[in-house]
Design goal:
Number of helices of chain B: 5
Structural class of chain C: mainly alpha
Order of helices and strands of chain C: HHHEEHHHHHHHHHHHHHHHHH
Number of helices of chain C: 20
Number of domains of chain B: 1
Radius of gyration of chain B: 20 Å
Oligomer: heterotrimer
Distance between the termini of chain B: 55 Å
Structural class of chain B: mainly alpha
Strand order of the largest sheet of chain C: 1-2
Helix content of chain C: over 70%
Shape of chain B: elongated
CATH topology of chain B: Helix Hairpins
Chains: A mainly alpha (131), B mainly alpha (120), C mainly alpha (494)
Number of strands of chain C: 2
């Protein structure tokens, strides 16, 4: 999809998509949304990038995001698994209603967001790259 | 009287209609992509059912907020949390089904089920 | 001490983790993958043995995930039934994985061999989770993950037929999962709980108010899990999927995956609805009717198939009928027979499918009409095959006889002696489609009748032989397993 209009519009829109995704991930405990929804938005933003520019890359380079995605999925899963292994360990709890108010749950949300975003990228790559 | 009962509980009615439509779509459509869409419609019906179970008329989202007045009702968060898991599962099923369909398309050059059966 | 307490949870997590580590090895060092998988499964087997040791001491294990107490959190609950299934799953998986070290590269494309073990471990984890969980929604998630893992095990072969079978399997299994989820939704709506004992107490209190909703719930759950467990009219996905998969996948799917759903169904029927509801609502007559159809119909369909693995797959449909028959009889002996048949059929079907894989490995033969003289070319494999077939028919001294005996006792106990006739007829039908294979292998003279040793590697022979020995052991000394299973049944029936 090497098109002039998509490239120019995309250049302006990408940052907003990513910012919105991070906003939803980080405010998961304050508003509806959270790790999964935010991670979906992040993944879609990056997917848009690879749809527009990614096919110009060399074939060898294109498998790189996939490997990175696998590692990130594992990393996110481990961070999420920590929640199950540490019973009732919330970490520092601040003022209710502010951004830093839930301790470890923010970290777990962030891990889920990372996991979902890289999972989406991986699925896309497996669908496109496999012969 | 029965009709008014149905109208009062309209989310359940819609959930059942969506479920039946999804089942019909899976079982009768010939196009494989439409079958996958049928799976998604069916699961949307189920998710709607769960959300309707957890909902309270006039309730707010179940997030603790000190600014809200006393005595406000929070909706039941458990079905929503369950449905989040359900959505993830249905997402992965859809992704896997699409991957299999891509593979079938590479083999047969069509996504129409009767054509595939004929070519076997 | 903390580790001792979290053991049930570690069992799940520590077989999930290597599944994802395997994904990295699958791209770099493909040769390491089988050994990593074997190590992980052997660890699970050891943990299951420890748990079995604890449960046999008369203890039932409750573990609350991340210390949330039961009505809210997920609870892991291990009783005799769960321990039996854990031992069966991990033991059979260990043998099948050892088998697939050498057998797999010949059957699936080399690129997929690494990923195959990821799927193997994922399926094992989901099945173990389904067996040990005490939470209905968690059970649904595990059902769905098992479904995806099983489909992926079929598609790993990457041929036209297996891809097509996978799609049909996937469609029907997600349809079944949808029905199951709707049933759980009804239960949640009636009782407001998802933890099985809490649902049961609440349901016993309010079930008079919702006669129709209860009926709808039961039928939804029966259809949902019935599709997945291939109850007779809903079995249409099974023969294609099981016969076109690689032979180690066929062994897993046919021997273990369909059984786990039956165990879940058993738990829901007897631990949630309770024994009285099962007898009141006439659901057991439906199950008995479908089981009868399955036994007769599956045998007849198997009789006309000429490809060995297809014949074995249709035979699975008939054997699932036995399990449902014992389940539908609803007496202690009947359910014990169902559970015993789960174990013995896992042994028999794994042995048969692995033998089919070994035969394909050495000679490349697939049709049952091409088996002449095979008994002299590969004596060990054919001996194991013969033992499993004899057990399938129900000859005394083999495992299959014990379940047939227990089923007959169960039908006498339920005042329904007609089922004994059914059991005898189905034994004859089994003989009609297994004995010609054996006859051809041993008694029709091939080109050379010199006895030689099998040419398949030792890692493929040993699992087959162990399975065959297991069948003989179960046939000669059934006392220990039977009394253990009876303890398991009495825990949740009365």
């Amino acid at each position: 999809m090497d098109d002039y209009i998509t490239r120019i519009v995309f250049r302006y829109i990408l940052l907003f998509i990513l910012m919105y995704g991070f906003y939803i991930v980080l405010h998961g405990h304050l508003s509806p949304g959270g790790g999964f929804a935010g991670g979906m938005i992040l993944g879609m933003g990056m997917l848009l990038y690879f749809l527009i520019f990614g096919l110009q890359w060399k074939a060898k380079l294109r498998t790189l995001p996939m490997d990175a995605g696998i590692v990130l999925i594992g990393f996110g899963a481990i961070l999420e698994g920590v929640k199950f292994l540490l019973p009732h360990e919330h970490g520092p709890v601040g003022m209710p209603g502010t951004l830093f108010s839930v301790g470890i749950i923010s970290v777990v949300n962030f891990a889920i967001g990372l996991l979902v975003a890289s999972a989406i990228l991986n699925i896309f790559y497996l669908l496109v790259e496999e012969e | 009287m029965k009709v008014s009962l149905l109208l009062a509980n309209y989310p359940y009615v819609i959930a059942v209609i969506l479920f039946c439509l999804g089942c019909l779509c899976i079982l009768t459509q010939h196009n494989l992509i439409k079958k996958v869409i049928g799976i998604n419609i069916m699961q949307t019906g189920i998710f709607l059912f769960y959300i309707a179970v957890g909902n309270i008329n006039g309730g707010v989202a179940p997030i603790y907020d000190p600014n809200l007045p006393e005595g406000v009702l929070y909706i039941n968060p458990l079905p929503s949390a369950l449905i989040l898991t359900g959505i993830v599962v249905s997402f992965s099923v859809t992704a896997f089904a699409l991957a299999v369909i891509v593979k079938l398309y590479n083999y047969y050059g069509t996504v129409n089920a009767p054509d595939i059966m004929r070519m076997r | 001490m903390h580790l001792w307490k979290t053991m049930p949870f570690l069992l799940i997590i520590l077989s999930l983790l290597p599944a994802f580590v395997m994904a990295i090895f699958a791209r770099w060092k493909r040769e390491v993958c089988p050994y990593l998988a074997i190590g992980s499964i052997a660890f699970s087997f050891a943990v299951s043995c420890l748990l079995a040791f604890r449960v046999m001491g008369g203890e039932t294990i409750h573990y609350h995930v991340s210390d949330w107490l039961p009505p809210w959190g997920i609870e892991i609950f291990i009783d005799e039934l769960a321990v039996m299934m854990l031992l069966l799953l991990t033991g059979c998986f260990l043998l099948i994985t050892i088998f697939s070290i050498k057998a797999l590269p010949k059957e699936i494309p080399p690129l997929a061999t690494g990923w195959y073990y990821t799927l193997l471990l994922l399926t094992l984890t989901a099945m173990m989770g389904m067996v040990v969980t005490n939470d209905l929604f968690n059970m649904y998630v595990m059902v769905e993950v098992t479904g995806i893992g099983a489909c992926a095990l079929v598609v790993a072969k990457g041929e036209k037929l297996s891809t097509e079978a996978t799609l049909r399997y996937l469609m029907l299994s997600s349809l079944g999962a949808g029905f199951f989820l709707f049933g759980i939704g009804f239960l949640y709506q009636i009782t407001g709980n998802l933890n099985i004992p809490y649902v049961a107490t609440e349901l016993a209190r309010v079930r008079e108010q919702y006669p129709f909703l209860l009926w709808a719930t039961m039928s939804f759950i029966t259809v949902g899990l019935g599709v997945k467990a291939a109850l007779f009219p809903l079995h249409i996905w099974l023969p294609d999927a099981h016969s076109s998969a690689p032979s180690s996948s066929s062994a897993i799917l046919s021997g273990l995956v369909v059984k786990v759903y039956i165990v879940s169904m058993l738990r829901i029927y007897f631990m949630v609805f309770g024994f009285e509801v099962f007898h009141e609502t006439y659901m057991r007559y439906l199950i008995l009717f479908l089981a009868t159809l399955a036994i007769i119909g599956g045998s007849f369909f198997a009789f006309v198939q000429l490809e060995l693995k297809r014949r074995l797959a249709y035979s699975t449909v008939a054997q699932i009928g036995y399990i449902f028959l014992g389940f539908g009889l609803g007496t202690v002996w009947g359910i014990t027979a169902a559970l015993l048949h789960i174990i013995i059929h896992a042994f028999m079907k794994t042995c048969l499918f692995l033998s089919a894989g070994a035969i394909y490995y050495q000679t490349g033969r697939k049709k049952v009409t091409h088996f002449s003289g095979l008994g002299y070319q590969m004596p060990v494999t054919m001996a194991a095959f013969t033992i499993a077939s004899l057990s399938m028919v129900g000859i005394p001294l083999f495992g299959g006889f014990i379940t047939k005996y227990a089923l007959a006792m169960g039908s006498l106990e339920a005042n329904n002696p007609y089922f004994i006739i059914l059991i005898v007829i189905s034994g004859l039908l089994n003989a009609a489609y297994y004995f010609p294979i054996i006859w051809q292998a041993y008694f029709t003279s091939g080109h050379d009748v010199k006895l030689k040793m099998d040419l398949v590697p030792l890692t493929m022979l040993i699992p087959i032989v162990i399975m065959a020995l297991g069948i003989i052991y179960m046939g000669i000394f059934p006392g220990g397993p039977l009394s253990f299973l009876e303890k398991a049944v009495t825990r949740f029936v009365f």
